[in-house]
Amino acid sequence: MIRARRYRGRRHQTQGLYRTIMRLRLSQIPTLLGLLALGLLLAAQIRFPNAMGWARHLVFDAYIAAGPAVTDAPVTVVSIDEASLTREGPWPWPPARLAALVDRTRDLGASIVALALIPSERGDGALTAADPNAASPTPAAQPVDPLAVSLARLPSVMGFALTHSGGSALHPPRHAGLATVGERDLRLPGRLPASLLPPAQALELAAGAGALNVFPDPDGRLRRLPLLVQMGDALYPSLAAEVFRLRLGAGSYLVRAQRGQAAETPITLKIGDRTIRLNGNGEVWLHFAPRAALPRISASRVLRDEAEDDALRARIAIIGVEAAGIGTAIASPLGERLAPAEIHAQALAQLMSGVHPWRPAWAAGAELTVAAAGGLLLIGIALWRRGLWLVVTGAGMVGSVIAAGYLLFSTQRLLLDPLSPAITITVVYVVLALSSYLISEHERRWVQRAFARYLSPALLQHLTRHPEQLKLSGERRECSFIMTDLAGFTPLVEQSEPEALVDLLNRYLDRLLEVIFAHQGTLDRIVGDAVSVRFSAPVHQPDHAQRAVDCALALDHAAHAFATEMRQAGVPFGETRIGVHTGEVIVGNFGGSRHLDYRAFGDAINTAARLETANKVVGTRIIVSADACARCTEPAPMRPIGDLLLKGKAHPVAALTPFSADERASELPRDYERAYRAMQHLEPNARALFETCAARFPDDALTRFHRERLRAGEQGTAFSVGL
Q1: Which residues form the Guanylate cyclase domain (predicted)?
Q2: What is the C-alpha separation between 196 and 136, in angstroms, rounded?
Q3: Beta-strand relationship, 274-278 and 267-271
């Protein structure tokens, strides 16, 4: 029992949700789809924050390419290039040659020398690999390393590397203190278990030692350089950081690590009085300068005294191998391939400038906020305006986000990703635009199917372009109506053959419909020979009354001409009676949920129908209510019929009928107006005036009607037509 109740409860909830969805207006679907797309995109960015990392890196590369660094730092690369190997001998060079190179850089005035390479030691004094785990010989037995002697003569830094395998378990020495403070123990994600070390004497006698490690991104490009590396629990500075420390004369490093995930929480590295912001991996973002912007000199020219005397004066010399096939050159965001010496030289120049690109910890949250705000703003705009407004707004927001991202980089060196917000806004725009287009097409086809039989082509085209003007749920609106009926239609049906009657009636209706659509009227319905026409619904027409009166006059002319043609052909075709009225009605779809029947309900329709029928009583072909005439901006010449007392109406309806062209050319308007005024004011000569008018115009049925009323003893302009 309990399970059954739960099942029924869930079923009712599902049915309720389904009914709610089905009640949604089509215009709300783009908004809901836009919100759904925005929510999914934001959730994906939160769940997979690095999914677009490659694209983010390309954007940052574009920033650097658009504004590469400009450097004037006193840093020079002493390059062991192809020319040096050709002139001085192949690599590896013996210690004596490297020592001579260090001595010559000192003689040329270099303030600091750094070796961005890892030499090793062998017994004959050449450079080779040694067993890093072998016991150290006694100082007396250990040969003197000429490279170590040269390094000891000036401030110098030796390079080493940490590695995953193939190295030594020995830790490199630290020549400066390194303290870690903060709310967490620092554990860099790239901790390495082994080291590749230069000869011990050179490493000990140098003023500093720094890691040469670089970690390119998966696409092979280098964008960040670790200023801190970790072997076990010990932290070590990079070569660039160690040279910078010697340049500042600092004796220690201070590392501050905040609580949080290592990849997201920044680290600050203090060297002397300089504080450098690092990411959670201990890396600094590099703002590369073009390779040609950094001075370089061939090692061979230094060794052979071919360099200018001031080539290295008061400058920092970074010695490294740049010859092809030796070492690894890594691509920069500028598309150039750089050797380790060039990379550390660029990093050192950036450290000396004090300006570093950085990506703050709040960057991802800010990008997510911008994406959400942009998407919501676009959805809000779509609720108000679509089409060109949506295109301009979407393109403007995407352009603004991209421009703001580059502006923040160029002025503040902030690395904020505009791509995620731009993609989010673009996808939301595409969803809004595509769903709006599909719904618009659906509405257009639906309107065409539903109203093609009832509207003129021009009005139908307008409605398909502006379906929002069609309101099916119901509303009160002032409209004008025309009702027509064919006199003598029943006898005509009885006398005619079916095929002939159908053809005759269709030809007659075609004439009327042509006139109706020419005045942009809406065909409400056709019942036999009777036609009902509506103006100002479904499309609002401010001049609906004028259109209705003009259409009625044109219908009368067309119907009278058709009847004349038929009678001349021997067909007893009657005249068409027309009633016109204006009033407030309720319009909407009254066909249920499965059938469209856009109709109007109200007293105005009944009044128009009774005015049409009243033509039989007063002898006219057209009766127009005073309410319709009063709303015409250019009323046709008309004469009053009187105040008609209609069934169901508390007050009489003032009615008028137009003069024909022949009547306007005669004296009928003057005589009729004089007689009608007398009747209106209950003057005793009213009957005599109508008698005279009827005698002069015996074919005027309306004059004869009033004469007979007055003969019967009636007075005034109000009378009942029995309808």
Answers
A1: 480-612
A2: 17
A3: antiparallel
pLDDT on residue 528:
87
DSSP 8-class letter at 635: P
Task: Find out whether 641 and 616 touch, Cβ atoms under 8 Å.
Answer: no
What b-and-e string marks burial along 434-463, b requiring 16 or more CB atoms within 10 Å of the CB? ebbeebbeebeeebeebbeebbbeebbeeb
| Pairing label, strands 112-115, 316-321 | parallel
SS3 116: coil
Residue 491's identity, in one-letter code, is P
Burial of 501 (0-12, 13-18, 19+ CB in 10 A): middle
Please tell me the total number of residues recorded for the chain in this structure.
Answer: 723
Q: Is 197 within 8 Å of 160 (Cβ atoms)?
A: yes
Give the angle subtended at the CA of 174 by the CAs of 168 and 175, to the nearest 5°: 140
Q: Phi/psi at 441 (nearest 5 deg)?
A: -65, -40
d(CA 56, CA 319): 34
The answer to whether 27 and 443 are in contact (CB under 8 A) is no
What does the DSSP assignment read for 282-342?
SEEE--PPPGGGS-EEEHHHHHTT-S-TTSSTT-EEEEEE-STTSS--EE-TTS-EE-HHH
Per-residue model confidence as pLDDT tens digits over 119-128: 865 434 333 3
Closest CA to 217 of 279, 276, 261: 279
Percent of the chain with pLDDT over 90: 64
CA angle at 640 for the pair 638 and 644, rounded to the nearest 5° = 135
397 neighbors 447 (Cβ within 8 angstroms): no
Q: Which amino acid is at 285?
A: W
Residue 542 CB: number of other CB atoms within 10 A? 10
Mean pLDDT of the chain: 86
Could you tell me the maximum CA-CA distance found in the chain, to the nearest angstrom? 157
* Spatial strand order in the sheet of 252-257: 177-182, 252-257, 267-271, 274-278
Q: What is the dihedral of CA 503, 509, 514, 519, to 10 degrees?
A: 180
Looking up tokens 């009827």 gives 694
Contact status, residue 60 vs residue 223, Cβ threshold 8 Å: yes
Name the strand (E) or helix (H) holding 366: helix 363-384
Identity of the amino acid at 365 = G
Residue of 127 and 609 predicted with greater confidence: 609
Write the burial class of residue 228 (CB in 10 Å: 0-12 exposed, 13-18 middle, 19+ buried).
buried
| 373-425 per-position pLDDT tens digit | 998 998 888 877 766 778 888 888 999 999 999 999 989 999 999 999 999 99
- Three-state secondary structure call for residue 638: strand
Q: Which residues contact 468 (CB under 8 A, 6 or more apart)?
A: 27
Distance CA 716, CA 680 (A): 5
H or E element that contains 378: helix 363-384
Taking residue 391's Cβ as centre, other Cβ atoms within 10 Å add up to: 12
